[in-house]
Amino acid sequence: MSQVLIRSPQHCARRGFSIDKRHKKLLLAFLTTLTSFVALVILVWLILHPAKPQFTIKEADIDQLNISSPCLNSSIQLTLLAENPNGKVGIYYDDLQAYAAYRGQQITVGSTLPPFYQGYQHSDLLTASLVGNGLPVADSLGYQVERDQTAGKLALSIKLNGQLRWKVGTWVSRKNMLNVNCVVVMAFQPGALVTPLSSKQGSRCSTSI
């Protein structure tokens, strides 16, 4: 006669997945450490709450701006001041590219700026040569330049796009998108040639992150 083994419900429950006490302690210690670290990072971030960097156009020189519809040739020399207003937060700048636009149309190709680190309450001068050769433009652009020449003012938009990372102590944040928009207004004498034009006024830029 064969034996029939009958197991109780309590015995079946004991066969399920279980974690011994030693592993439970290790898991609890890991979760506690992780939670404490995340809470510390959030607390530091809330206390410091870094302000956005500030950018100012120090000088912009148009060496060339020739429009022969439907193409345009341009050359602009740019000097930009970057300032970190934070007293306890550094900034890493990555993948920076600058270009010029006129009346909503891009008139130079993107110029790559080298990455750099900016310390607390530090400022740096950035220089770039913005060039556009044979760029296609709308037929109306030449007419708009003539209108601005008659009005005596030429307004250019200088764009700076890239990424930044905040640095607090040894902690560095993930990359954040950086978009800077500057407007440069240049005197444009009626009857004068389109080039050269120069602006040395400190035009403050808008910054979004």
Automatic annotation (TrEMBL):
The chain crosses the membrane at residues 26-48. The keyword Protein biosynthesis does not apply. Keywords: Membrane, Transmembrane, Transmembrane helix. It is found in: Membrane. It comes from the Eukaryota. Residues 79-181 form the Late embryogenesis abundant protein LEA-2 subgroup domain. It is a single-pass membrane protein. One of its GO terms (cellular component) is membrane. PANTHER family: NDR1_HIN1-LIKE PROTEIN 26, OS05G0367900 PROTEIN. This is Late embryogenesis abundant protein LEA-2 subgroup domain-containing protein. The lineage of its organism: Eukaryota, Viridiplantae, Streptophyta, Embryophyta, Tracheophyta.
